[in-house]
Design brief:
- The protein has 26 helices and no strands.
- It is an all-alpha fold.
- The longest helix is centred in the first third of the chain and has 24 residues, at 61-84.
Length: 496
């Protein structure tokens, strides 16, 4: 499980931290706990009896026993209906619900209504949103209790579908009918949050917590809105409070760890990410984050360990592959680096920079013949790649091969690049070498490798050695060769 968390605004980020709104869908089970108590009593009589008991005038034990039995029978009937109805017709699960609703409606309309809501929520679980909305909208003109429940669930569904205007409309309807409905208050806060009204959203989440102190949705979203407002201390307090309520929830632990990293408390971040890794031991994003934090602490052995573990569980993350490839280059283990850069080239076959990095590894290993073959292959597919042409000229010179054709093409590209840069900036005059090298960022010219390879200042590959006679011989590389693409700023960022 990667921490591109399940979020109600997009259906399923990435793995950047995205907003996660816990479910704010009201189940009929909560209503059923208190439903059916006074179905057979007149409202005035029931209120008078409750008032008399409240002030201690009298306590009618028989009435209390009858209420208890009705409540128990109500729960038994509804539980039996929920268990039996989906199994009555294997081909059409809804047929069983419809049959039970028809049976209950004449004598137990309240239970029939709850079963209708339960059927709508089953449609929702099966991702049959249109049927769920149709079923819940039938309650708009029913009693306030069921209308509030239906409106809360409709707000939740529309929020899932990113129809925020409808979500807010039904959230308003739900909490207007019942100001003590914590789920409705959370839905309203979510709608305000996506509109960017953070302060108002925060007030609704706080009100929901006031109504229901352990409402995990409200506490979690309160932490998120505090993060958006930059109130990291308050966000930390909210998530740590929630951690005491649900101590094993990985999303909450992640948020705490992420906040510690954002506030640069790396030791505490590592502690919480370690706790998180015990909950989700094979999550590649968590392992990569731990590797990044250890790298910030200059603990390269631990950074390498966690990046390698992340790669083992998810071998297609380009960030992790890049980091490992550059780490092996810095450790002068070029064969290992080639493996990772080749994997990156398989993942992004249209990105030439990975193939250039593979070729650079062969160059560092002094396998110039193989490097030449690869550069020629790259040139055949990308004839306007400046970096490839530059190294082709250098290698052909060192191996005593014809290079004039590549040299002429490189000169034309340099002039074209210089003219293009002058046109873009609107300034004439002499361009610096750095400005010329930035052209490598243009599509089809090697991406960010233009700046990486530009560090060599177009020096010949073997410039520090005498002119070769038959070919290069192994020896110490010159300083300019060391300053190739792996020393560039872009690749350095991969290790940050």
């Amino acid at each position: 499980m990667a921490f591109d968390f399940l979020s109600l605004d997009d259906g399923v980020s990435s793995h950047e931290v995205r907003f996660l709104y816990f479910g704010t869908c009201l189940s009929p089970h909560a209503l059923s706990q208190g439903a059916g108590d006074d179905d057979d009593e007149e409202p005035e009589e029931s209120k008078a009896a409750d008032d008399a008991e409240a002030v201690g005038t009298r306590r009618d034990e028989l009435r209390q026993e009858l209420k208890r039995r009705k409540r128990e029978a109500h729960n038994y009937i509804l539980t039996a209906a929920r268990l039996v109805t989906p199994q009555l017709d294997k081909k059409d699960w809804a047929a069983g619900y419809k049959w039970a609703i028809e049976i209950l409606k004449p004598d137990h309309e309240n239970m029939a209504s709850e079963l209708e809501i339960d059927m709508a929520l089953t449609h929702l679980k099966r991702r049959e949103f249109e049927s769920a909305i149709e079923g819940l909208k039938l309650f708009e003109k029913k009693d306030p209790e069921h209308r509030t429940m239906a409106a809360t669930n409709l707000s939740f569904i529309y929020f899932l579908e990113q129809d925020y205007s409808q979500a807010e409309k039904y959230a308003d309807m739900a909490y207007t009918n019942d100001r003590y409905n914590a789920k409705a208050l959370v839905n309203k806060g979510n709608c305000l949050l996506v509109k960017g009204e953070f302060e108002m959203a925060k007030q609704f989440f706080l009100e929901a917590i006031g109504v229901e102190a352990d409402c995990v949705e409200a506490i979690y979203n309160l932490g998120l809105v505090n993060v958006r407002m930059g109130s990291y201390a308050e966000a930390q307090q909210a998530f740590e409070k929630l951690h005491t309520v649900i101590p094993h929830n990985p999303e909450v632990i992640y948020q705490i760890a992420n906040l510690y990293e954002q506030t640069n408390d790396l030791a505490s971040a590592i502690k919480w990410f370690n706790i998180l890794s015990t909950r989700v031991p094979s999550d590649p994003v968590v392992l990569a984050r731990m590797g990044q934090i250890f790298n910030k602490q200059d603990d390269e052995s631990q950074a390498f360990h966690y990046h390698l573990e992340s790669y083992r569980h998810y071998p297609v993350s380009l960030d992790v592959i890049s980091w490992l490839g550059v780490w092996y280059v810095k450790s002068e283990l070029y064969e290992k680096a080639i493996h990772f850069f080749e994997r990156a080239a398989q993942i992004q076959p249209s990105e030439v920079k990975w193939r250039l990095m593979v070729t650079s590894c062969y160059r560092r290993m002094h396998n110039y013949q193989k490097a030449l073959e690869l550069y020629e292959s790259i040139y055949a597919e990308h004839p306007e790649n400046v970096e490839c042409l530059r190294y082709l000229v250098a290698i052909c010179k060192d191996l005593g091969r014809p290079y004039e054709n590549y040299q002429q093409k490189l000169a034309r590209l340099d002039r074209s690049l210089q003219q293009q840069t002058m046109n873009q900036t609107g300034r004439g005059g002499q361009l610096s070498q750095q400005q010329m090298q930035q052209g490598g960022d243009q599509p089809g010219r090697g991406g960010g490798l233009g700046r990486m390879e530009g560090e060599r200042q177009r020096a010949p590959l073997m410039a520090a050695r005498p002119e070769p006679s038959t070919g290069p011989s192994p020896g110490k590389r010159n300083d300019l060769e060391e300053e190739d693409e792996f020393a560039g700023d872009d690749v350095g960022d991969l290790l940050a």
